[in-house]
Every structure is written in structure tokens, then in C-alpha cells.
């Protein structure tokens, strides 16, 4: 068995995920706990929460180096780490880390998030996604998309992340299907998997030449008119809206200059949404590169290795 | 006092509004009841609900003619009236009415909604707005916007409504400010009226030359990044988002071909949103025409007068 040398924390608002990692970067053990999520930790007792989650790893293996990223480094977290401005690569992110020593003598390094001061109307921000991007490799200039509640479109140039933009796509999908007129119209069939035909129908309209597809506030009303017209069934709605919303993200990202037909785009992360994004990309003339599933861990280790040399 | 000759019903899902009207079209009395809303009426007891609301008007004035529009004419209402296809004017809408006689001998006429078979991706629909448009007068060719939960952009040509498109703007605003990341960020100050400076800031970005404004899913994230950047205060958020969302409706409607700089656009209805729409229109180079407050009643009477002649 390999020897553990570090603990990597993906520490967010709703959960704490921890990985016990070897020198070669292999994951030897991993845990996820809801109770460690920032919103559940009272009175700033983050160190106690960490020990409750992985104290036995320290007991067994000594004062391992800890590397933490995610909302734990935000204003509401343990240690606020200032955003590093784009353009930034491994060196700039490593220089932006903050280090402390735990009561048990283990060093803990908090990784910074990133800020794009050129984004409009206000500088954009991310915490955690920058490590995923770094972990995918930054040797080749390209555009990347990171699907999620708040998707990111990012550009890698000359070994650094040169800019990025947040799209609240996942949240808008959730709002529409949980709380809007659509919530009443739909009839999901859990467990049956995506109805790809319905998904494609929404996506194809979003990718079409029709100018009406530029009007998302209107296009989304098609979830009702499609039922009225007998073109959609209640069980189609969830996937139809998914295709329409994600397709609209691509359409908007194209309008904002993040993609054009013929580009190759990397899809980053192992989010369940990635297969949906991969299905839509060709409708916009894009070639897809799939990222390694452990991109986040790789990125943290790359940044961490430079940070600990400083 | 003038003699009442008819009762006009604006009968929707959540409320029943009734007006007692003279021959010259003046409103002599009016009432609104929540309990008469379609969703609260059990077992199809619509006639009983009508009598509970305005039975005394019949007792006092005899079997007055009743004209009903709104969701009461939909599949979930009292009498389903088929949509009349665009293009349609007073004559076509009058021909699409359905008439019944109440137990007390009063004739009740149900007005049809309208359908635009040319809308993409599916035919669009409305119930009630067509009467408002007719009531504004259809002598002049022009574009109209009807602000609301589901706003309509409509075109009047040659005395008829030639086409229209629904924008779920009000609903999207409500979802975002009630249920999204924005709900936590905002700090509304009820009773202080709109913070127009914040409203204008959102609207101006939506109307700007910046291509990022074409990406609504991204632009809306500025409600968070504006706070982080110290550019917006929590109390600004509600009106900032209002300006951004309504401004985005105009931007999308422009992309979809409903408006261009230099046009004159009518704002229809007496919705509280109208002042917000009127404030944004000049940012898109539009001249505004305000509609009469009683456009809906006028329209119903114009359609009704032809319907009862048939």
C-alpha cells in the first residue's frame, strides 16, 4: 500500500469532501459528510468539523499536509482568501494561497478563487473551478465549459486562465421546473432516464437559425404551448426544458464570444450534466474534449506543489 | 343615474373581477373576489360562484347580458372556447364567441382567446390580452407590449392583430427574486418605492452595446458579483434585477424582430409594471404611447357588440 502524504478538501456550503492522497496523487481513501458543510458548522468551529470528519487519518498517518478549496475560503468560510485576478496560472494561484498550522501540527493551505476583472457588468468570480481547469492541463490554448448550477465558460491561453464567465443555467433550470408554470405541466418519470428525443427537440430549437430562439423568455413558454399544441407530452417536459435551457446557454455563450462553429471545447468535471452538454455541442458545430474525472484533485495538487515550495 | 345593461367578467385562475356597465360603456359598479377564482371553484360550480359574486345585480336590474373573458374560457374553466387564429380583429373574435343562457334567463357570452399559428417553436396563445389590444384601437398599424407575468408583444396591422409572442418575464423575475441565489442577497425596503438608480443600472446594461448582455443566464449573475464588487447594495438588488430582466425582455424582443430603434410602441394595460416598461423603452430608441386604462373593458364591449348582432 502507498503512503498517504496529503489530504485534499473540497469544502463547500452543503458538504465537506475529503480525499487521502499518496505522493503520486492516487486517492487512497475518501469521505463526504453533510454535517461538515459550511452552513452546518456553528460558531466558526471549522477545525473541530475537520477533525470530526478525518481526525483518524491524522491519528494513523501523522500531521499530513492539508489543501482546501471551495467556499471554505470565502467570506463565510474558515479563512477568507483573496481572489487572484485573471489572467492566472499555477504560479499566480500558488502565490495567492494562505497557510496555517492546525493544533495537531499539520499544515493547512487554503487555495484562492479567481476573479475576472474584465467581465461585464461586474468582475466575475469562481472558487474551485480554477483548480479543475488547471487539472485538465493548460498547455493548449482552448475554451472550456464547466457545467453546473452556475456553469463557467473559460479560456485558457499561454498556460493561464485568461478569462471566464458564469452562466446560472442549472439554477434557472431548477427554478423553472420546480416553481414555475412548468412545474405543474410536467410529469417526470423518475428512473427511466432522459427522454433524449424531447431533450433534442428543445436543444435543436435553441440551436436553430430562428431568431425567436434569441428570446429565451419567450422560448421557455414553449413548454406550455407545446402541450397545448399536442406536440409535447407531460412526460417530455423535464427533458425538453433541459435541452432548451442548456442549448440556450450555448447560444448565449456564442453571442458573448465564447464559441464559434468549428471550435474544439473541453467539457470539464464529472458532473452528471456533462453528457447533456456533450450532446448539444455538435449542434453548435463544436468538437468535444472530455476532461479527466479527477481534474479537480490534479489541479489542487499542481497548485499545492508550487505553493509549498514558496 | 345611468341604467346598467351588461356585466363584464374578467375571470381568471386566482380571482373573478366583475363590472356593471351602462350602454355608453361607463362602469357603474365593480367587484373583485378571490373566492370566485377558477382554482377555488369546486365541481364546476361556476354559475353558483357567479351568483355569489353578483347575484344582487341581477336581482336589482334584471337579466343583464354577461360577457366573460380570461381563463374561464379555457380547458379548466366553465366553457372552453376555441382559440381564434391570428390574424384576427373584432369580426373574427366576435364570430368565435360561445353563448349560453343562465338559470335566471340572462345571456352569457364567452369570448375566445387567440392563437398565433406562425409562432415558433409552437403556436402561441393568449386569453384576455386580445380584448385589451382591441380596446386600444386597431386603426393604426403598430407594435404593442402588454407587461405582465406572461408579457405579450403584439403587432396590429390593417385593423387586426396579425401576430404576437409571449415572454415569461414577470414569472422569471418572481422566480429569481423569491427562490434563487438572489433571494438571499437582496434586502428590499417595502414602502420606499422603486430605487430608480438601481433599476436604471440593470436596464442600461441590458440595453448596452456589450455582447455579454445577450447572455441573460450570465448577466443575471451580476446580482451577486455586483455585491461582491461593492457596486450594488443589498437594498438595490430587487430593482436592479427588475431593470435587468425587463431590459432583457426588450433586448430579446428586438432580436426576435418585434422592435427597432425609432419605432413607436404602445404600452397596454394598467399594470403596475407599465411605468417600468415606459422607463426602459427610450433606452431602445422607442417612442411610447400609453393606452387607456379601461382598454380591456372597451375591447370586450367592441367584440360583444358584434357578437350579439350575429
Automatic annotation (TrEMBL), chains A, B:
One of its GO terms (molecular function) is 2-dehydro-3-deoxygalactonokinase activity. Gene3D superfamilies: 2-keto-3-deoxy-galactonokinase, C-terminal domain, 2-keto-3-deoxy-galactonokinase, substrate binding domain. It holds the Pfam family DGOK. GO terms for biological process: D-galactonate catabolic process. InterPro entries: DGOK, DGOK_C, DGOK_N. Keywords: Kinase, Transferase. This is 2-dehydro-3-deoxygalactonokinase. It comes from Rhizobium deserti. The lineage of its organism: Bacteria, Pseudomonadati, Pseudomonadota, Alphaproteobacteria, Hyphomicrobiales.
